[in-house]
Fold Golgi apparatus membrane protein TVP23 homolog.
Amino acid sequence: SSDDIEDVSLFDADDEASRRSKKSKIRHPVASFFHLFFRVSAIVVYLLCELLTSSFIACMVTIILLLSCDFWAVKNVTGRLMVGLRWWNQVDDDGRSHWIFEARKVSARRSKASSEAESRIFWLGLVTCPVIWVIFAFSALFSFKVKWLAVVMMGVVLQGANLYGYIRCKVGNRKNLTSMATSYLGKQFLRQTVAKDDQTAS
């Protein structure tokens, strides 16, 4: 499959007027609520289900429904409203699959630009919850709770897919990801080299 990417910046760092227009208030409170509600609810149900009921099937169905609602809401609604990002897959006339990752360019003229508070809420929920599900996966594996492993892996896959998709929207294609990683590692190596030279000189 080939990747089609609209390579535009979400936050315009050069435009001071755009920065001033981004207030801390939450412009989409309903979207912000549901961005966290389904994913946090799935984690809470997973932690408390054995205390609330002895039915594994009821717990499994509830968690999978919450995870599915979260995947749909984050992919189709909250990402577009809260941070101006969206990703999807489309099939062309030749039957080839294309993954499309888009980032909306925010300018001072747009009154519906996402706020910094919403951006923090979005990325905090998007990154933290998949990490928690990965921890649950290791916990279920090492404690030999095999029946829970399928449920936990569902959480890792669904929330990990949204995380990967939105990182691709924000950063760009794989070449950009590679160049950013290389640049970061190069800067770290340069800093360590300079620090060692300073210690040697002193």
